[in-house]
């Protein structure tokens, strides 16, 4: 920025004291300070906005490259699946043609007798504690484990009458 030394600052202060006067000098200095602060904030805001726009442009370029790569991958997958389906249909056609020459049909009963095993969810042991907070902590800190109405709580803690 501007190279201002101590001697130049003293000279500017002396000229300002003579021109403005000692009564108005503090007010003028405050006004100049606030204006310089506003100018610095404005310049900082403009720099931040320029940086944001540059980052947005970079992100757009990156997005376009990623989308292009995704399109290329998608096209290669589609071409691979088309080739795979073509090979599959050729293979199944050749197998069917070779099997059509056999006199006896395939035993379909053997394929239908297989029964897949039924999935059973592993049940948890009901004896195990399911709460994360230990019971000694609950009793020490007064955590209620059983719900009790207000009237029942009053009856529970009511002092007993002495006998007789």
Q: What does this molecule look like?
A:
Belongs to the TatB family. Its main location: membrane. The protein has 164 residues and is mostly helical. It has a domain at 6-97. It has helices spanning 6-20, 25-100, 108-112, 135-141, 150-157.
What is the rounded Rg?
44 Å
Distance between the termini: 99 Å
How many beta strands in the DSSP annotation? 0
| SSE-based structural type | mainly alpha
Low-confidence residue ranges: none
Write the element-wise H/E pattern from the N-terminal end onward. Answer: HHHHH
Helix content: 55-70%
Quickly count the helices.
5
- DSSP strand content: under 5%
Could you tell me the mean pLDDT? 82
How would you sum up the global shape? flat
User: How would you characterize the largest beta sheet?
Assistant: none
Family: Belongs to the TatB family.
Organism: Comamonas faecalis
Protein name: Sec-independent protein translocase protein TatB
Pfam families: TatA_B_E
Summarize this structure as a short list of keywords or feature phrases.
5 helices; mainly alpha; membrane; Sec-independent protein translocase protein TatB; cell membrane; translocation; TatB
What's the gist of this structure?
The protein has a domain at 6-97.
What topology emerges from the helices and strands here?
Elements: H1 6-20, H2 25-100, H3 108-112, H4 135-141, H5 150-157
């Amino acid at each position: 920025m501007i190279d201002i030394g101590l001697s130049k600052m003293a000279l500017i202060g002396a000229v300002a004291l003579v021109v403005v006067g000692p009564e108005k000098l503090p007010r003028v200095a405050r006004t100049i300070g606030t204006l310089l602060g506003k100018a610095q904030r404005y310049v900082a805001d403009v720099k931040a906005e320029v940086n944001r726009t540059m980052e947005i442009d970079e992100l757009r370029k990156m997005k376009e490259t990623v989308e292009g790569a995704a399109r290329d991958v998608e096209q290669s997958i589609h071409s691979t699946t088309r080739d795979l389906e073509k090979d599959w249909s050729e293979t199944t056609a050749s197998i069917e043609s070779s099997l059509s020459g056999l006199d006896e049909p395939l035993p379909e009963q053997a394929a239908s007798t297989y029964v897949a095993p039924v999935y059973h969810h592993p049940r948890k042991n009901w004896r195990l504690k399911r709460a994360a907070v230990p019971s000694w902590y609950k009793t020490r800190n007064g955590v209620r484990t059983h719900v009790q109405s207000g009237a029942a709580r009053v009856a529970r803690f009511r002092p007993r009458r002495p006998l007789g």
